[in-house]
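BUG: 3D viewer hangs when loading the predicted structure for this chain

Environment: internal workstation, default settings.
Expected: structure renders.
Actual: progress bar stalls at 90%.

Input used:
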Amino acid sequence: MQYLILYNVLLLVVILEFFNNVNRRELIKKGNSNGIILLIFMVSIIAFRDWNSPGFGDSVAYGKYFEYAYTPQSVWYAKSKFFGYLYYYWSQYGLSPEFFFFVSACFYCLPMYFLSKIFARPYDAFFMLIFFACSFGWYSFGVNGIRNGWAIAMLIWCFLAWYKKKYIISLACIIFAWCIHGSSMIAIAGIVGAYFYKKPKQAFKIWIVCFLVSLAVGSTVQEYLSSFGFINSDGGGYLVHSMNDTSSTAAMGGVFRWDFVGFSVVPILWGLYSLKTKYNDSKQYLFYQFLLCSYIYANAIWLLAIRAAYTNRIAQLSWWMIPIIVAFPILRFDFTKRGRIWAYALLCCFSFTYLMYLIQ
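Structure tokens produced before the viewer hung:
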């Protein structure tokens, strides 16, 4: 029921905004009221779910932890020491699982709002935040892959600090993201790669090479990545999961996901087009190069393991950047029919999300 409410309400918002803006040359420059309303909705739909329902697999596991008395010794056996200590102190103070999920929802969604507020200026934060809310994987990482979602939240803070040239804070956010969930190393590798080599066209060539290698000998590369330990125990199980697993959650693995490849390449082409024809500010141009290359490198790493079980979870470690990649140039670059392009881009992003929801 919560999935139905979320996607159908967002669908209604998308359709209304589409028809509201499709014939306008400019978006409306408003305050932050719409953005705050959307933020409240995003937090509420995640925080106040029935976490004990069988439909929320990982949420049930997280919630059940609170039924056991955590000890300092048990922290050392946790995958994430940060979460281990969090559970320990949570149990000491008698705080409820419901309050934990509320705090988790805020931790996950607030960075998206503040990044949208800065990147969307002079427009309302809503015009970028809605791309996050409509993106494929946003809801699942908020209610199931909670530690992944927290790590992504820290990387969003990293981008925001980088934009403000607070590089020490940005580095701290990267380290904190890695401490929360080791699989965030895929996104971190993309960010580090973009720091040293910010040439989107050349990065796209690397992406194409990874695509061809994965298409030809992807299983061999996947086995190599698993043995090399590129993804640690947090995510390594996805790579070594049996290709013959037919369970509903692992069914995404074992095949080459052409739909995911198509979804991944569209933001790259959009970014290259925007950089070539629409930029009007050197600072915004250089920063968007960094954003786009970060996405390309992280997505290229996922391509090498595209046949893995739970490949959508690995892909989300690059896909979380798509709302930024798509919306940033529309709001910051020189688009003459900004409102119309924004509406079409939003409709396309949501259409894929809604289609995947219906298929699954």
